[in-house]
C-alpha cells in the first residue's frame, strides 16, 4: 500500500505522505495559500474559503485546508478564478467586519486587491461590545465567523462547549446560548478562544482597556518565557510585559506540553506577581 502521493502544484512536482492536505502540499511546494479560519492545532472548519485552489477535473474550487492530496493531482493556486474568489471573500468580510486587529484579513485584502467599500451599505451590521467579565472582552463587530473559538472550546481543546454559532445570515454570531452572559454559561474562562481568535473579536480585558486608553504599544512590549507555577503539568508561558507590568500571557502553539492551551490560572492568574502587598505569615 502506497504511503506517499505525488502531485503537481503550479507545475512543480511534490511528494508527501498520504493523508497530507493540499494546503500542506502548496506550502511544501513553496506556493503557500492564504488562510483565515485554518489553525495549526484545530480541525479545519472550511468556513472562510480564503485558501481555495483550482484542481484539474474539479467543477468547483476546493478548500485546500481540508482537501486531502491525491496521487496525480494537478493544483493551481493563483489562477484568475482563484484570485477572484479570494478577492470576493475579502470584500464580503470587510463589508461587515472591523479589520483593525485582523492582520491576516488585511494581508488577504491587499494581496487580492479587494475593495473594502464594494459591498458596504447593503445591510446594517451593528454588533455590541460585550464586557461581562474581568478577563476578556467580546467585540462582535470584529468577528468573521471563522469558528476557531468554537473549535477551541469544543472537542479540539477544552471540551467545554460553552459557545456555538447562533442565528442565521446577518444575524449569525458566536453566543453562549439564548443571549446569556458568559458567567451564566459553562465557560471556564480559560481564554483558549481568545488565543486562537484572528481578528481581535475576542481580546483580553487588560489589552482592551489599554488599547482604548491609547496606551497599548507593541513596540514597547517585551516577552519573557517561563513555566507556569500553578501545577506540575509544566505549561510554557510567554509573559508580555509593558512598563514593567504583565499585560498578557500566551503559550506557544508549537509547545509539546500546552500546544498553546492554558487554564484560567495560567492565562489570567498573574496579577499576584505585580502586587505591592506583602504576605506576612501568621505568628
Core attributes:
alpha+beta; 283 residues; 3-stranded antiparallel sheet; Alpha-Beta Plaits
**Biggest pleated sheet:** 5 strands, mixed
Residues in β-strands, percent: 15-25%
Biggest β-sheet: strands ordered side by side in the sheet: 2-1-5-3-4
CATH class wording of the domain at 126-216: Alpha Beta
Please state the overall shape, judged from the principal axes of the Cα atoms: globular
Please identify the structural class as seen in this structure.
alpha+beta
Number of strands: 13
Mean pLDDT: 92
Radius of gyration: 21 Å
Topology pattern, helix = H, strand = E: EEHEEEHHEEHEEHEHEEEH
Specify the helix fraction band: 10-25%
Q: Tell me the distance between the termini.
A: 73 Å
Instruction: Report the CATH topology name of the domain at 126-216.
Output: Alpha-Beta Plaits
Q: Please name the CATH architecture of the domain at 126-216.
A: 2-Layer Sandwich
Model regions low in confidence, pLDDT < 50 over at least 5 residues? none
Q: Counting H and I runs of at least 4 residues, what is the number of helices?
A: 7
Amino acid at each position: 500500500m502506497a504511503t506517499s502521493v505525488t502531485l503537481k502544484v503550479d507545475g512543480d512536482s511534490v511528494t508527501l505522505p498520504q493523508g497530507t492536505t493540499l494546503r500542506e502540499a502548496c506550502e511544501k511546494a513553496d506556493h503557500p495559500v492564504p488562510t483565515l479560519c485554518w489553525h495549526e492545532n484545530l480541525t479545519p472548519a472550511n468556513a472562510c474559503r480564503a485558501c481555495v485552489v483550482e484542481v484539474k477535473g474539479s467543477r468547483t474550487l476546493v478548500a485546500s485546508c481540508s482537501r486531502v492530496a491525491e496521487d496525480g493531482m494537478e493544483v493551481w493556486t493563483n489562477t484568475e478564478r482563484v484570485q477572484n474568489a479570494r478577492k470576493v471573500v475579502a470584500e464580503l468580510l470587510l463589508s461587515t467586519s472591523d479589520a483593525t486587529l485582523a492582520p491576516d484579513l488585511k494581508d488577504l485584502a491587499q494581496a487580492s486587491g479587494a475593495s473594502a467599500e464594494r459591498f458596504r451599505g447593503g445591510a446594517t451590521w451593528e454588533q455590541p461590545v460585550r464586557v461581562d467579565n474581568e478577563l476578556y472582552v467580546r467585540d462582535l463587530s470584529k468577528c468573521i465567523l471563522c469558528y476557531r473559538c468554537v473549535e477551541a472550546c469544543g472537542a479540539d481543546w477544552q471540551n467545554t462547549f460553552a459557545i456555538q454559532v447562533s442565528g442565521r445570515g446577518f444575524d449569525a454570531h458566536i453566543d453562549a446560548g439564548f443571549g446569556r452572559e458568559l458567567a451564566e454559561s459553562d465557560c471556564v474562562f480559560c481564554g483558549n478562544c481568545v488565543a486562537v481568535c484572528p481578528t481581535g473579536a475576542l481580546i483580553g480585558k487588560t489589552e482592551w482597556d489599554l488599547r482604548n486608553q491609547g496606551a497599548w504599544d507593541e513596540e514597547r512590549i517585551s516577552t519573557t518565557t517561563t513555566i507556569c507555577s500553578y501545577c506540575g503539568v509544566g505549561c510554557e508561558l510567554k509573559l508580555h510585559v509593558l512598563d514593567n507590568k504583565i499585560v498578557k500571557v500566551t503559550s506557544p502553539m508549537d509547545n509539546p506540553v500546552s500546544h498553546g492551551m492554558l487554564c484560567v490560572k495560567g492565562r489570567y492568574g498573574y496579577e499576584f506577581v505585580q502586587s505591592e502587598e506583602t504576605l506576612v505569615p501568621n505568628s
